[in-house]
Structure formats: C-alpha cells, structure tokens
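Task: complex structure prediction.
Instruction: return structure tokens for all chains below.
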Amino acid sequence: MNLIPVAVIVPLLAAALLLALEKVLPKRLADGFALLVAIFVAGLCLVISLETLDQPEAYWFGGWRIQNGVVLGIAFVADPVGAGVAAFAAILFSGTFLFAWGFFGDTGTRFHVLMLVLLAAMVGFCLTGDLFSFFVFFELMSVTAFALTAYKLESASLEGALSFTVVNTIGSFLMLAGIGLLYGRTDALNLAAIGGALDGHQADALVAMALVLILAALLIKAAAAPFHFWLADAHAVAPTPVSVIFSGIMVSIALFGAARLIWTAFAPLDQVAPAFRDLLLYLGTFSSLLGGLACLIQRHVKRLLAFSTISHVGIMLVGLAALTAPGLAGMLIYLVGHGLVKGALFMGAGILMAECQDIDEIRLRGRAKHLPLTGLTFAAGALLLAGLPLGAIHEGHHLISAAVEAQHPWIPLALALGSALTGGAVLRATGRIFLGLGPASNGEAEGPGKPEHETPGRPVWLMLIPILSFFAVACLAQGPAVTDTVLDLAQGFADHDAYGQLVLEGGSGAREPSSEGHAAPEAPSSPILPWVSVLLALLVAGLQLLRERLPAPLVWLSSLVLRPVFQGLDRLHNGRIGDYAAWLAIGLALLGGAFVLP
Amino acid sequence: MSRTARLVLFFAALLVAVPLGILGLIGLPSFGHHVSTYGDVVDAMGTDLRHVTNMVALVTFDVRGFDTLGEEFILFSAVTGVTMLLRGDRGEGTSADPVRIPHRRREGRSEAVTGTARWLGPMTLLFGIYVTLHGQLTPGGGFQGGSIIAAATLLIYLGEGYPAWRKIVRSVLLDLSEAAGVGIYLVAGLVPLLAGATYLENILPLGEVGSLLSGGLIPILNAGVALAVAGGFCSIAIEFLEETREPNEDET
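Output:
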C-alpha cells in the first residue's frame, strides 16, 4: 500500500471519528488520541521523506494520469523536502498536543477536530503537485485557523480573528484569481504541466499578473511587510497551543509553498526578474527590521513573540528571494530552527498564563521566580533568536546571509540587527518576569486591560517536556552533515527539469549525483557578526531594563530619536481592518510595479 | 490612520494595480474562443469509461475527486468552527422559541402555514434525495441535495414550531450525520487503496448508462457529501437560532 495518501487521510479520518464520538469519549481520551495521530503522521511523513531520498515519487489519485496530452487527475509529488516539511509540521503538532494536555477540558473535542484537519491540510499543502488542490489545502488551513483563533471568545480574540479572517480571505480571492488567469493561458492545473506550457515563453502581462496575485496571497499568509498586520493581532490572542502552530509552521509553510510554485511552475520564466527578486529581498529585510523594532515596545508577551515571528519570517523570505539552492537550503533549515524555538517560547508564555494567570510583562514583573526552568528556556530562546552561533537558526541564517552577501553586502548586517532586536526584547521580558529586574513601568505601549489566563492546574513538568525537547533538537540540528544534506536536497528541489520529467513523462526523477559538489558556502565573511548580534541583544535588553539608572541626557536623547519611531509603529498596528486592507493594496501595487520597472 | 489618508493610500495603490490588471486580462483568450481541451477530453471519454451522463460529476467526484474531499472538509471545518464559537451557556433545553421580540404579542401559528409546511416538507425532502441520487445522471449531486434536505427540515420548524423541530432534529444526530458523511467519503477512497488500487480509484461495477446505480463510486461519494452537507447546514441553523433563544428558567 502506498503511504503518500495515507498521511493526509489518517488525520482527516481521526477528526471525523472524534466529532462522531464527542458525547461518549472520556475526557482525556481525545487529548491522547490526537497526540497519537500526530506522532503517527510525523512518522509516516519521515518514512516518505526517507523513501524518496533518491527518487521523488508522483502519486496519481484515482489512477487518472495523462490522456491525449492533457493531465486529467490530481498528482501528489512526494519529495524529501516536501515530506520533510510535512513531518516537521506533524512533530510540532505532537509537541503541541502534549503541551495542551488538559487545556480544553470542558469544551468537547471540537478543538482537536479542527487541529487535526489543520494538520492534514498542511501535509496536503506540502505534498501536492496540483495548483488547484494547493489552493484547496491553503483554504482549508485558513478556515480551521480562523475558528481556532477566536476560540477564547473574548473581545480581543474576536477582533484578532476578524482581521485575520478578512485579510486572509482577500488573499484567497487573489490566489483564486491568479489561478484562473494562469488556467486561461496554460489550460493546465498540474504544476509540471504549467511549467511545461510556460517553457520557452517570455512572461507577458498575464503571466506576470498571475504570479503576482498568487505570490501576494502566499506573502499575506507568510505575513511579510506590508501584508503582515493581521499576524500580531491573531497570534497574540489565539489559545497558546494554537499560537505555537501558527508561529511555528503556518507562517513559514506559505514560503515553502511559494518556493514550490516558483521552482515547478514559474522557473522557465526569466521574469522572476532582477527587479522582482530585489523587491522580495527588500521586503524581507524590511520585515525583519520592522518586526524587531515593534518587538521592543510590546509588553503583552505573546504579542511580542508574534512581532518577532514577523521579523524572522522576513529573514526566511530573504533566503527564498535569493532564488538559489543555497538560499533555499538556508530558508529550510531556518524554518525548522525558528519553528522549534518560537514554538517553545510560545509554550513558555503559555506556562506563564497557566501558572501566573497573566501575560502582561509589567504586571508579571518578578512574579515567575518560582519557575526557574521556564525562565532559563526563555533566556536560551532569546539568545538563539538573537543569533547565538549554535543550532539550526544560526546554520540557516548563515546560509541565507551567504546567499545574498555578494550582491547586497548590507542585507546580512540588517538581518543581524533584526535578530538582535527580537532577541533583546525577549531577553528584556525574561529579566523582568523571571528576575524582577527593571522599572515597574517605562512608558511602553499599553498592555492588555485585564489579566489573560489559561486553564490553570496543568502539570508544569508535562508542559516542559515539549519545550525542552524542541530546544534540544533546535540546538543539535547543525553541523556540516546537516548543511550538506539540506543543500543537496534543496538542489534536487530546485531542479525544474527533473520535476517536469518525473510528473509528465513518468521519468525516474532521480538526480544525478552532482560531481562538482554543491556550491558550499564559504566560511562566513565575518564570523564575529553573530557575536556582535548577541552582544547587541544584551545591550538592548540591558538599556531597556536599566533605563532609570542611565544618565539623564542619554535618556532624553534616546527618547527624542526613538519615541516618534515607536509611536508611529504603534499607530500603524492599530487593529483597524480598513488600514490593513489599504496596506495590502499598496503591497499588491508594489509587487505588480516591480514587473513594469525596467 | 485617518479616513482620508487611508483612501489616498488605497487609491494610489489602485492607480498602479488597475492598469496592470487590465493589461493582464487582455492576455486572456478572447470571448467565445474555445480553450478547454480538458473539457473536450473528459466529454469524449466520460460515458465510455465511467458510464455517467453528467460530466461535471465525473470531474468533481472521480477525476478530481480528491479536491472535492478537501472542499467537503472546508465545509466540515467551517461548521465545526461555528458550533465551537457559538457554544453558549444555554444547555439543551428546547421549550422556548428563539427570535422573540419582547413586548410583541405572540401570534399563534396559522393553520395554513402548518398545513402547507406539512405538505411541502416531505416533498422537499424527497426532492433533496432525488437530486442526490441522480448526481451522476443530471445536474445536481450531494452538495445541492444536502442543502435541499436541510431546507426540508427547516419546514418542520416553520410548521410545528421550535420545540418540535429540536425534538426531531437532534444535534447529536446532526454531528453524527456530518461525521458519517465525511467518513463515507474517506473510507470509500480507502477501500480501493486496500484492494491494491490508488486512493479514490473507481473500481466498483459501473452499471448501465443512465440507471440510478451507474458510475461506480460516484453515487456513494454523493451520498456521503449529502449527509455531511445536510447535517452541517442544520447544525448551523440550530446554532444561529440558539443564539437568540432566551434560556428557560431551569437553565442557567
């Protein structure tokens, strides 16, 4: 029996079963069942990933292939990268279900049902080789995510879910329009067939517009500036287990989807033009800085983490926009490292909400001294985010920087600064909450009105298990072996011709072992850059915490420069959906304009 | 951002986006131009290969049946989301009417309404089943049939009142119907897989062209979709009405 469809079917079947048995299941059984299913899916996807290591495999649903030169059915194309990302998603879900043990005690199984469907949608999204089922799974992800965001039914969570819903639904419309245009031109929905139809053609306005529309939808989901506004509203208010999934994988999986489309369908066009590539590079860099700066003024810890996600997804976007295999490899490693660390940090915030019954940094000052291990994980997460040369985040960051350094030497510096700002903000929160450092108030943005809390009385050690294991994996996944393997896989992923052959001609799709070896990145041009970044993070945290003890003129000067910036940022992220939509239109115009520019 | 600033920003963006959009649309095949090779191929082979006469059903429930599974789950998730978010504190009581406006006199239900609903309800239900069963033959199918069946149960509400409707249309049964509907689709795909074919491969006997039992797997998938859609739409109707129902005295 072929395992490829099973990876999507099993979580869906489990969801249906949980809904049917809602009234008769004993309380904790749903928690355990969902956990087992997620672990099973993770194992399945890993097996698929290993099996396709030498040779990707096309799977045609219903046995419909190609007739009279027309691709009739839907194909899944399992390759080690796609299945690997799916496996990573399932691993995050496993940790999350463990963390959420007892979280949803009295509201039946609906949470588990929606989470399992979300998992199935992600697996399908990673494996599909068909543009329309790509859209179906994209939409399925959105629909489940909308409901999960609003779970708490407080006014903040409803508002957050509403901006999330409106902005992402606009994105879905854009993508559908793009698919329609592309279908009108190529008469195909299969990615390889689209790529084949565009082969040898110049990009005219129609193809360009289709690419812009589809890419815009993915960038909305990936929350790249200026499409990012919904993210902080939604991720901050969702129940913590949901935030873990959102920030850990749902944002970055959109970038993976973009990579898939670019290399399968759009690769033959040299119109992924220099201007367009540069624009994506700039947007990514800008997101990284914007998210980092916005982090500094948050006192709602989950909102702070949400802004840091915007910053780090910006870094991943830079890796994608390099449009080279090493850049892509960097993005993939970063996706894993960031997903684990950010997921663990959100879980730490969840422990605060359960144990201290609040999430406001100022009110929590010194109130978590009885949770030393959680504090340590917070500090470790902050340092890893800041760029400490250890583990997957650093490995990915290094590859991404190396991929763009030659043409844009300033981008690595900007990315390091963005990381340092996010790390500094998390460090500051750690110092204040777990050590009681810093002033009780320092004129940051307004905090949440009333304490937000989550189901208390869950065992802390149980919640710490996924946190610590996530950190362990994030730190250990490094070294030349990892980098070489992923570089090799990324090169296979980016092989447009082999993909087309595999799907359309039933070719083996096996890659010839590259004799010349891949363009392994040089040693980092400045091996001290990560350390500078970490130092900067420490400095940022220290300055914010010791503000009162600094000489008065210095404080005056810094607030003279920084206050307008921070106030502007605060005013931009105001929760008004109309504003968000206007920025979305600007982003769309920017993407479209990049094609017109010479 | 002020209203003016927002509008300026938006129209500035449109200034760039709209001309580009028009440029792109011009690239589409001209009106009346026949492009769909896909449609031609499917039309040519459908009746021979699968013994169906509704080619849309052939595409949605066989050739691209996996997409439809995803779409069924979009509906399933939307309904599950709605019922999760509208979870009230009202309990299961059903003796009071929802959508009541205070201070307005309650009119009794007219016998004409009850009579019409009693007559129309079973007919509508029958029509829903008909549309579902004929999915592979004529326009229609599970999505359409399921919504008609859900509408038929609403006629019970119209004719007999809220308590009677809730007594007949139990939420537990609706959840079961929804879960069974998606379950049928999933398992119907799994059976060929276990038999050594691919997922959702149509390996059942195909029947006679034009008969109710033609198309192999297609009628079964249609039935599953109809169950899920009917259960889902009824659940949503109940949740929306429950939102406006005042709790009974014995409920909190």
